[in-house]
Amino acid sequence: MADSANIARHLPLMAARQPDHPAVKVPRGRTGDGRIDYLTLSFTQLDAEVDTWAAHLVRQGVRRGDRVLVMVRQGLPLIAAAFALFKLGAVPVIIDPGMGRKNFLECVARSRPRVLLGILLAQLMSRVFRTAFQSVEVRVWVSGSPTARLSSGAQPSALSPQLVSSEAADLAAILFTSGSTGAPKGVCYEHGMFDAQVRLVRDTYGITPGEVDLPMLPIFALFNPALGMTTIVPEIDPSRPATVDPAKIVQAIQQEGVTNSFGSPTLWRKISRHCLEKNLPLPTLRRVLMAGAPVPPALFADMQKILPNGTAHSPYGASESLPVASISAAEVLGSPGEDVPAPSTVVAFGTWPLALGTSAATAAGHGTCVGRPVAEIEVQIIALSDGPVPSLKLTRILPAGEIGEIIVRGPVVTKAYDQLPGATALAKISDERALTLKAKSTGTGLWHRMGDAGYLDAQGRLWFCGRKAERVETPFGSFFTEQVEPIFSAHPAVRRSALIGLGAPGQLRPAIVIEAEDPKTVASAAQRRQLARELRALAAQHVQAERIRHVFFHPAFPVDVRHNAKIHRLALARWAAGQTPLDLTDAAPEKKA
Asked: What would the pLDDT profile of 74-107 be if each residue is shown by its tens digit?
């Protein structure tokens, strides 16, 4: 249907455009010579597989508008099931199982799926935790194999259900946030929003049909049939991404000529180190997208060493709005030989010179630049507030260089959380000036509050200063994670640092928690005191860090499961409340905070 906004329409279009081109490759072992053995489906075959899935789901009782909880393996089952559900006008509900059992079950109960499409473990779970799954009326069993196929022929069946005609505003899917700074929430995606995402990702990064993608977050594989890219399913456990074997990822990239890949900074840090140690460049990669947490400038530098023909990028966005902005390695690293202001030099926010690259500004406590807004996306900065802002008229839009809350609008901005009107009211702002009929249909009349603090600079670039919920409000001002942590993380012995607050709300004392690069370097009290003295010397050079007096050492930061990169700073603050810090002023122990 040419006039349908249904995102599933892209697959048969690509099957007609490049019928024999590989659409998906799923690893199933090794050949005798050590190469990865893949199950390979062309676009025509994947289209046939989706049609077979759609026919099977209809026979099992799946109807248009049904909410379908999808609990299948990454790879062919996830891609085929999602597109079959889109085709039928059903609504896939996708919840990250790594968020923990309690959160997962709460999300299931709140989303009220009528259908459970799942592997054996999912079906057993639904029987054990009956209360959470009480809305389920139809259970569709799925093989636990990531290479399992329902179809046998190469051609779509003439008896398969027809593509449902969907409006742009029709609900397409419910995808849950990671819950890194709060309870996970179901984000309501419309077909028009998916369409806009495909368009903006394609145009922002110059992606063309025929490219080869290795997505290290399973949900991103769903964009590829619409983009005409081959999906190489990575050998990675999506529930434990940090355990990935970088050698397997590198082998897949080299063997299959991968041109595009998405992954968290944590994953690419591991992969880039492996490549640098083994002297393994990745010449086929045209672009690497790193997201899920701020990307350290040092990682951008390492990535460029292994990408002789490509560029690393960091898209900025959230589950509720993606993409918002983007920055490349060249913008971060700047031009070699440029004179950078000394660390102690105070450069006003919003005035950092364009030619210097943003990495020096990040090291000086200016935050992390996430680039310019992508086409069709508008960004504003409003005064910080923790309460609802019903209308844009009820807040103050801040000038360039002033830190506030980042708000965005555009065709990829979602309108609501599922079954959470209170959370929706906190996250959305209406703009009466933009509420034309066209704006209502595209979602551009509604602003989304990113929950992030930041500012726009004089060149129109967006700078991220940290999560709003993780700012530390003290009697002498606000402290933001991305203005403090890079200063401490610049020390070679520090793997990660985390800003936290000690004490009562409104009277917090800023403190820093350190995760060492090598635990052996902070094994003794003397070693910790020595590192604390060195960190104090670093902090003294920066106005954003010089007031921090307390340091803690933590063996391994708690992080999100999805990207394995977002630090759970609020959990660290609770942990620190029961620990004894070192005082940075003299690096001697002080009384318990």
From this structure: 889 999 999 999 999 999 999 987 788 899 999 9
For every residue of 69-98, DSSP letters joined together read EEE--TTHHHHHHHHHHHHHT-EEEE--GG
Q: What is the pLDDT of residue 343?
A: 41
Tokens of 156: 């779509």
Would the pLDDT of 9 be above 80? yes
- Report the 10 Å Cβ neighbour count for 395: 20
pLDDT for the residue 353: 57
Contact in structure between 360 and 340 (CB atoms under 8 Å): yes
Dihedral angle computed from the Cα positions of residues 451, 453, 457 and 461, in that order, rounded to the nearest 10 degrees:
-40
What six digits make up the tokens of 469?
A: 């919920």
Spatial separation of the C-alpha atoms in residues 441 and 47, rounded to whole Å: 30
Q: What is the pLDDT of residue 156?
A: 53
DSSP 221: G
Taking residue 209's Cβ as centre, other Cβ atoms within 10 Å add up to 15
| pLDDT higher than 80, residue 168 | yes
pLDDT in tens, 46-65: 999 999 999 999 999 999 99
Cis peptide before 323 (omega within 30 of 0): yes
Structure tokens at 406: 């980042």
**CA 135/CA 127 separation, integer angstroms:** 12
What is the spatial distance between Cα 158 and Cα 141, in angstroms, rounded to a whole number? 24
Tokens (6 digits) for 424: 């929706």
Tell me the CB-side half-sphere exposure of residue 319, using CA atoms within 13 A: 23
Cα 344 to Cα 306: distance, rounded to the nearest angstrom: 33
User: What's the pTM value of the predicted model, to 2 decimals?
Assistant: 0.91
Instruction: Give the pairing of strands 91-94 and 67-71.
Output: parallel
**R_g of the chain, CA atoms, integer Å:** 24
The Cα–Cα gap between 83 and 90 comes to 10
3-class DSSP state for residue 190? strand
Phi first, then psi, for residue 479 (nearest 5°) are -115, 135
- List of domains in the chain: 9-209 (3.40.50.980), 233-319 (3.40.50.980), 321-470 (2.30.38.10), 471-589 (3.30.300.30)
Average of per-residue pLDDT across 564-586: 87
pLDDT digits (tens, 9 = 90+) for 376-425: 999 999 999 999 999 999 999 999 999 999 999 999 999 999 999 999 99
Distance CA 299, CA 308 (A): 15
